[in-house]
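Morning run. Coffee first, then this:
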Amino acid sequence: MTKIETLKKSIEGRRICIAVSGKSGCGNTTTSSLIARTLGLNLINYTFRSLAEERGVSLKEIMRQAAASDEVDRIVDRRQVELAQEGNCVLASRLAIWLTRASADLTVYLHAPDEVRVQRIHQREGGDINEILEFTRERDRQDHERYLKLYNIDNDSYDFADLILDAGSNNPNQLLDLVVDELLRRFGPGEESP
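And here it is:
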């Protein structure tokens, strides 16, 4: 039995919740999707982007609205927590590890250098690399200010996370492997069966 099969058997019947956070371009969605798909869990990735799509506006417009009104953040955050409470999920969002700190079975923070993040955003969305860098830095600044104001959360302080993973040096499959190893340590025998 592979370690993934062993883990799936170990968590079968549990209402497990894995929370994954990181700044834009760290691979939150890709890594969280891979974890969820591999382990047969639901992916919860309700973000500003999701709200923008629901409302038929751009991400920049939602960010503008969020800067003008705390209610935008509260809507997104409330929806994430509601969905995560159902369990059997991977919650992927900027604040996932903070919002589910007391209830998640595993909290994972992904970090990557700005240059890596900007390159990934550029590959995903296209555009001028310098504009993306400026936009990303401004988004980080706005996010930081909002989270402090709304919840007194410093999203640059994530040392409480169960796993802090380098998403700049590790690809999504390597990140998955590190998460599986930690989950096996917590819920399974910790070794592959022959």
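The beta strands are 17-21, 42-44, 89-92, 106-111, 163-166. Good start to the day.
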